[in-house]
TrEMBL record:
Protein origin, superkingdom: Bacteria
Coiled coil residues, start to end: none
Positions of transmembrane segments: none
Organism annotation: Paenibacillus plantarum
Name of protein: Right-handed parallel beta-helix repeat-containing protein
Amino acid sequence: MRISKAFRLCLSVGLVFILLLTVILSMPALTTTTYANNSTYYVDSASGSDSSNGLSTGAAWQTLAKVNSMTFLPGDKILFKSGSVWTGQLHPLGSGASGSPIIVDKYGIGNKPIINGNGLTGGTVYFYNQQYWELNNLEVTNTSASAGDRYGVKVEAQDVGTYNHFYIRNMYIHDVTGTNTDALKVTGGIFITVSGTTVRTKWNDVLIDGNTVERTDRTGISNGSSWGNNDGSGNFEPYTNLVISNNTLNDIGGDGIVMRASINGLIQYNVVNKAHARDTHYNVAIWAINSTNPVMQYNEAYNTKTTNDGQGFDCDFNLTGCTVQYNYSHDNEGGFLLIMGSGSIRNDNMIVRYNISQNDRTRIFQFDSSYTPLNSQIYNNTFYIGSGLSTSITTGIGGSNPLSFKNNIVYNGGSGGYAVKANDVYDYNLFYGNHPASEPSDAHKLTTDPLLAGAGSGGIGMSTVDGYKLGTGSPALTSGVLISSNGGKDYWGNSVSASTSPNRGAYNGAGIVLTAPNTWIAVDDANVRDGTYATTNQAGTTAVTVDTKNDLISYKRDGYFKFDFNSYSGTVSNATITLKPITAAMSGIQNEVALVSDNTWTEGAITWDTKPASSTVLGTYTIVAGTSISINVTSQVQAAMSTGKKLSIRVYSTSAVNSNGNVSFASSESITSTDRPKLTITP
């Protein structure tokens, strides 16, 4: 029988179908789940090759272009070789999954791998609509001759709903030439953002931890959102589980750390030194805005520049429940805390407690002149203002809401006063030192010496403030008023009872025995001078001052001080060097202090050419004539107890100035004995 072509075709197709069906039925059931790839890829800028598969150190890729061309899968790792350097943008593709993030890290021994943006616009490391990533242990920089829209790391989610899990840890991000005219205050170090207006979008589970950020403009670490306006109008989709912690920031052009658009966000265990270093607008070291229940705790902020804000901390606009607790603020030119809010742009239910402020300038608290936050509570803080300062305690008080100010210690060695509204409540505070006419009435006020263990002795570091503990017999012990929901512990972690009267101030432990400190005047001190004076001793044995200057033309001056405490054999719980600047010819001069390990120099022989080198930087200080600077040298003295019981420091200017930019410190030959440089050791 003849079979038609059409029939033969149908038969063939049918046989193929039967065969395919048989194969499919014999296969295991298919699932739509995509399993983690879990591959590890290696990248080596010197010895790698993009033609390799990247799956071993011996077959590493070489370029960022190769990495950027790949779409990575959950569980993958991308490891960059330590010591390698790449130029350009790192922008790997793909997303991880819950429990299986994609990880970027380093391998090998040596310095962090460097990604150098070399002036490119945008993020040197950039992610767009990608989630479940962890970024670790890279060095990132992006400099240019001109300002621009540049970031160290930029992570962006746009119109995607909720995106999850982005961790940035242990990065070194430095020298990013952003723009200090950026109105959004976001260019600079690390920026996590939400953009777009079509789909409500937010980030969940963001951790920025353990990073070092230096010399970035305008901002160090920040986040933002196009859905981040917490004004009650419904345009608010806040970040959840946002934590910015354990980061160290130094020399930031504008703001240090800014938290926006969050609910229950945490800013904790960070250190910000010298924010607002270059920008001429308004900036603060650490602050929150447009958020609900943000908490700033266990942070140190110091050396913030200018009085255009210039504070260590800020509870800004559109906040509910801003809490500032357990922080150490010192030597900020604008003060301790900025408090904003105005009418519908509110700042309600603010709590400020168990903080220590030492020698903050201009004002401790600056309020918006037309508004005091509703239900604002300031209690159990310790504020120290050194002699010669004119720091005001409160400024800008306005509006109709009362301020509650209780259980605080204000140790006012300066001349500043208070701005107080008629309905403000001051109660159970201790005011000691100068008492300006504007000092508020307080039904349970104390004005006797609080017997602080070492007022003004705080150095650099959260652990250097034991001088603000209370001594046995202090009138502040157990004499405060109960505060409901008081946080349960003080600055040092001592418990605060909900039923018994607390101490006044930031310390709630038992009184400590105050041991008389031991003091030594410098045995050698002199300045050295370069240029034609480089071989000449500057009359170190007779000069009544020790001078520092970084002249634009020549004749720099560095100061050297040496202390001999060989007679001391006790323990060392605290050690401080105090220097008294007699003159500071220009305002805002910075002096840096560094450790000198060679103690063989003498004031009668030291010259510029023979001066010993310095090493560890102990601190940077804004010099105000007549106001002593205190340098914490506890660990250095402890170390010297077994290596000769001598300690030398070098003091020098950190920036070039004109010929009038000198600072003169009282020397050990000063006719005013109380001004002489001294080392104080507390057992």
